[in-house]
Design brief:
Elements (H helix, E strand, L loop, with lengths): L2 E10 L8 E3 L1 E5 L2 E2 L5 E5 L23 H12 L3 E5 L11 E5 H8 L16 E4 L12 E4 L2 E7 L7 E7 L1 E4 L3 E3 L1
């Protein structure tokens, strides 16, 4: 394995569809970063999960860690009562446990190289990478190591930047860790 880049930032999204929280380090479990998308917003009337794509204002809300306070803030934005509930199975991640994106992908998007239907403004990735001489889009099917964790890149997202990965070996990752491929 050779070093292809470094971890520039780590983000965890405690409540699915709400804003993220920057971390200096995080433990990756089989279901993703510890605490990531561990809670969901549920409509109090219908019991259905409220998704960010139907309520884009939610991404601007920073979770407090208090489900009652977070539910109140979300209800104010949506204009209807909601509950914040634990995600079934410990994570409400849709596509894969870990979303990786490079600064270079964001730069390409700002220059107009954006997949159709993609929002380049906020890729909502867990790990922002600095890859001066590489492109994560070429990693599908490959294994990489960050910190003490091993991941396998499973696919490119249809509607956002970067790549999705599954955790092959749980472990801790830290800002500044090399990315080994």
């Amino acid at each position: 394995m050779t070093t292809t880049g470094r971890v520039a930032r780590i983000w965890v999204y405690p409540v699915k569809s709400l804003g993220g929280t920057a971390r200096e380090r995080v433990h990756l479990h089989a279901h993703g970063p510890e605490g990531d998308r561990a809670w969901t917003v549920v409509d109090a009337g219908s019991g259905e999960v409220v998704r960010g794509k139907h309520a884009p204002g939610l991404a601007a809300l920073a979770p407090t860690g208090d489900p009652g306070a977070d539910a109140g803030a979300v209800a104010d934005v949506l204009g209807r009562p909601v509950r914040i509930e634990p995600a079934p199975g410990g994570s409400a991640a849709d596509a894969a446990p870990v979303h990786l994106v490079s600064r270079q992908a964001i730069d390409r998007a700002e220059a107009g190289d954006v997949p159709e239907g993609c929002s380049a403004e906020d890729p909502r990735a867990n790990v922002l990478l600095d890859l001066p001489d590489d492109d994560e889009r070429t990693w599908v099917g490959r294994e990489l190591r960050i910190g003490t964790a091993r991941l396998v890149v499973v696919r490119r997202p249809k509607h956002c930047l970067g790549v999705y990965a599954e955790v092959r070996q749980p472990g801790e990752i830290t800002v500044g860790d090399p990315v080994l491929l």
